[in-house]
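so im writing up the methods section and need the LysE family translocator record in one place, dumping it here so i stop losing it
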Amino acid sequence: MNILSFIIYCIVVTFTPGPTNIVILSSVQHYGARKTMGYVGGATLAFGLLLAASALLNRLLAGILPQLLGIMQIIGSLYMLYLAYQVYRKGRSEAAGQQASGFLSGLLMQFANPKVLLFTLTVIPSYVMPYYRSPAATFLFVIVITVIGFLAFTAWVVFGSIFKSFLQRHQRVMNSMMALFLVYSAVMVSGII
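--- predicted struct ---
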């Protein structure tokens, strides 16, 4: 196994913009870093659970993966469009306070996030299982990937905190851009383009 390739892949996938990272950025802008860390905790727990489930159920999922991925693409795309609408509405003051940013919201977001589902369903079977057979090694890699995900989510909180005043000054533009990124993600995941 090429560890460097594995680490780079995990970092690129978790640190690049996706639905969870965009919601984290929006949440920091509106609720602050402390409240957003609850969301990060939920997102991290779900991320780890999805990785563990992928590792434990890999053989079962391999048979139903094509059907499962198609359904999750549709559900995930619809959920991202809903999130895009919520983020866009944040640009108007009457919509403030309606987007959840707590632990449960972060947890649920990951289970509906197609980027995370596709990543967790492929990273362990592709990078770990061909080279490591023991449950302890697989568990270690689940922990390592979960920590990388937590660091990525936290980096987005820090980024949002550092640029919070800028983001608030340009709230309408930033919310519109984040909403458009979510719409783009939904379109790409759905397979329309």
